Amino acid sequence: ASNAKVGRVLEDCIEEAQVVEGCEKTVGNLLYYMATKFPTNANRHRKVLAQYVAQGKITRNEQLDGAHNFLKKVGSGELDIPTLEESAGVGVVVTAEDIQQCTAEVVLEHKDEAMQERYLFNPGPLLGKLRSKLKWADGKLIKQELDRQIRELIGPKTEEDEKLAQAPKKTKSKRERPAENESKEVTEVPTAKNPYAHFPNPEENNYVHTEVHLSWGEVMHIANTREELDAHLKRTGGRIQTRFPPEPNGYLHIGHAKACFVDFGMAEDRGGVCYLRFDDTNPEAEKLEFIDHIQDIVGWLGWKPWKVTYSSDYFEQLHAFAVQLIKKDKAYVCHQKAEEIKMYRERKQGSPWRDRPIEDSLKLFEDMRRGMVCEGDATLRLKMDPRNENFNMFDLIAYRVKFAPHPHIGDKWCIYPSYDYTHCIVDALEDITHSLCTLEFETRRASYYWLLDAIAVYKPYVWEYARLNITHNVLSKRKLQALVKEGYVDGWDDPRLLTLAGLRRRGVRPQAINNFCAELGVTRNDNMVHLHRLEHHVRADLNECAQRAMAVLDPVKIVLENFPDGAVVEVVARRMPGDSGVTYTLPFSKTLYIESTDIREEDSKGYYGLAPGKSVMLRYAFMITCTSIAKDRSGKIVEAICSYNPEKPPKPPKGVIHWVAEPSPGRKPRTFDAHLYEPLFSTEVPGEKGDWIEDLNPDSRRIVQGCMTNDPLMTSNEMARGVNFQFERVGYFFMDEYSKDDSLVMNRVVTLRESREVKGIKTQ
User: Residue range 176-186: average pLDDT?
Assistant: First the structure.
């Protein structure tokens, strides 16, 4: 089989059919059809159907379809053999006479239509009707009989029939475009597939989509019973319920934004609800700071949790389930240290404490709960399958002793459940319909379902999607913590990081992040996403909303020799391009400043800036002509003398540059520092060829001081706060939240255009 999963199921079907030594081709084809179509919630009954195939009681795919539909409803419940046989047509014999008689009745119903259309008559609908009536008949025999009876009815082809057959077919005429003044209905064309369309509905969650293969040969076909599913649907009303379950041990990054898009987005799309659940099972790493941040950032992204819950809210129930597992001999108290557990795991060897008496484990677990056992001296482990190929079935730790206060519930507990034990049970307790997580958790499916089956509770549908990885960045929480703690960045909200706090501080809007996540979709294709794809959405979003302004980052002084001394005039500038109508005024005076890159000592072909003897247009203002320049000792141009033309020239120069003028004689424009950011790492995949820290880009932030602006929205920090700017011809900027009253810091969010390097990557 081309698909490995189908291949494994086919092997099981062959073994269940008891034809391991070989079988007829027709039997093999039917077993393959079974392997691809059999409803997994009824896997306990698959052997019965496989043997029906091997014994020749089922001989066609249509019979298997009937059996599959019946078994899907039965699930793991008790099997009624007579009803199964009736559903699959077992023992039903359809004779040639039956086919002939039924076909004659159907043809008679359409006699007039067939006689009129003759050889242009379409027999397809008749064939469909016959297959419905003769459910267990051979489809080929039905078609042969239908063709024979129609030919007998209409007789042999005539010359007229031949002419009609050769006549050109009518083609649909193209619709004429409506005139400009005609009204026409506009329909919305979907731009992308619904990323959540492939997820099943809650009422379908009574089949197995993961089998747990145990080392002793048993295969667990775990699924909700009909009773468990019906009770769940009654509790939820049949609605979708998802959860976004971050651990409160750090700041969220853009990968968590994708998780929010998946969890909150699916619930919103399907009319359901989504929990914000803190998986707070490790008190030593968790802080109230992180809890507050997560709630804040989820709201900033635009998502509204149905409820905010904590795994610690369920500690009483989790403890009760642990006691229940011990009593069922599915958990035990173990005294192995971490290194011993690791060594035994590598050997696939069970703990020496695995078979201790149930009463001993119950007493020791109670001692752990009461604080009578030291940290590291004992753990509660699940009695799973130490020899299993899947390491996540190696008697996972359910509880450990930790004498540490908890940020949410204080010091009530000194034993804490593990993530693997807690996560799936709380999913069940909260009636989560779809437990969605990233692909690195795929191997945990077996332990997830093993545990829920062991405590006999409702089982959510689990599905994994690709983790988000972006070039020139790290999204591992461990690596982000290292960057922060070791001082490589200025904190969790450093604008160079792809933490959501860092992106927000830099000036990225949540709409851009959500659009980026929507473009990625919800797939299992695990790959590296290039940084320019995120920048594209940031740029597209800001282009629609950023306030246009003028600022000069590296000023060169311009003196207009023919402008009146002491005079200041106002010019009108636009906040947004086009005819938005929103304008603002700027002062224009004798002394102004332009960008150093917009003036040269010598003109050249293709250069549209200022040079001696050359003219440019000042954006929203006048044409100026350079007459002379002055340089410092290093040869850099520091000042230019120009003349200005107060009249609009008949043929304006091609070059149009931005500028900032003194608001009044001798008073300089407001100055600020511009922080220009480049990727944090110089390599696409940090650490791919060595130590990831060594790949840090030393030029990831360049601070430019002495930048100038006269924009009215930037006269004070309070006015500039929260405003996205496009500095015309420069880039998109946003005020840093740590700006002080006497100093303004503007973060460059993204450049105006993609770099040549990025364009080269996109064309490869």
Answer: 36
* Dist CA 367 CA 322 (whole Å): 14
Q: How far is CA 397 from the centre of its chain?
A: 30
Spatial distance between the Cα atoms of 446 and 451, rounded to a whole number of angstroms: 9
CB distance 315 to 346 below 8 Å: no
- Crossing angle of helices 531-545/756-763, nearest 10°? 120
Considering only 47-56, 152-161, 237-246, 437-446, which range has the smallest mean pLDDT?
Answer: 152-161
Tally of helices (H runs) and strands (E runs) in the chain? 24, 29
416-430 confidence digits (pLDDT tens): 999 999 999 999 999
The catalytically annotated residue of 444, 477, 506, 548 is 477
CA distance 286 to 418: 14
Select which of 467, 479, 557, 575 is catalytic: 467
CA-angle at 131, arms to 129 and 137, nearest 5°: 150
pLDDT in tens, 345-361: 999 999 999 999 999 99
Q: What is the mean pLDDT of the chain?
A: 91
Non-local (6+) Cβ contacts of 492 within 8 A are 250, 251, 293, 480, 484, 499, 501, 502
Per the CB < 8 A criterion, the answer to whether 346 and 388 are in contact is no
**Cα 761 to Cα 764: distance, rounded to the nearest angstrom:** 5
Starting at the earlier edge strand, list the strands of the sheet with 307-310: 241-244, 273-278, 307-310
Active site residue 247: yes
CB-based contact 421:382 (threshold 8 Å): yes
Residue with the bigger pLDDT between 73 and 325: it is 325
* Number of CB atoms found within 10 A of residue 41's CB: 27
Q: Active-site residue among 247, 678, 684, 754?
A: 247
For the four alpha carbons of 752, 755, 756 and 760, in that order, the dihedral sign comes to: negative
Q: Which among 501, 480, 477 has a CA at the least distance from the CA of 489?
A: 480
24 labelled catalytic = no
Contact of 242 with 436, CB cutoff 8 Å: yes
Q: Is pLDDT above 50 for 652?
A: yes
Q: Which residue would you say has higher pLDDT here, 555 or 134? A: 555
Round to whole Å and give the CA distance between 104 and 98. 10
Q: What percent of the chain has pLDDT over 70?
A: 95
Q: Which residues pair with 557 in a beta bridge?
A: 593, 639
Q: Report the predicted TM-score, pTM, of the whole model to 2 decimal places.
A: 0.80
- CA 596 from centroid of its chain's CA atoms: 44
Please tell me the distance from the alpha carbon of residue 226 to that of residue 235, in angstroms, as a whole number.
14
HSE-up of residue 411 (Cα within 13 Å, Cβ side): 5
Q: Of the candidates 521, 597, 588, which has an alpha carbon nearest to the alpha carbon of residue 553?
A: 597
Structure tokens, 653: 């120069």
For the purposes of burial, counting CB atoms within 10 Å of the CB of 703, is it exposed (0-12), middle (13-18) or buried (19 or more)?
exposed
Q: Is 631 known to be catalytic?
A: no
Picking from 517, 500, 519, the residue whose alpha carbon sits closest to that of residue 509 is 500
Q: How far are the Cα atoms of 119, 688, 694, 761 from residue 683, in angstroms, in the given order?
A: 69, 9, 10, 14
Q: What secondary structure letter does DSSP report for 101?
A: H
How do 273-278 and 307-310 pair as beta strands? parallel
Closest CA relative to residue 436, chosen from 654, 266, 657, 591:
266
Burial class (CB in 10 A: 0-12, 13-18, 19+), 300: middle
Look up residue 674 and give its two tokens. 């511009």
Closest CA to 619 of 586, 579, 662: 586
How far apart CA 732 and CA 752 sit, in angstroms, is 7
Strand, helix or coil for residue 425: helix
Question: Cα torsion at 758, 759, 763, 764 (round to 10°)?
Answer: -30
Taking only the tens place, the pLDDT of each residue in 430-458 is 999 999 999 999 999 999 999 999 999 99
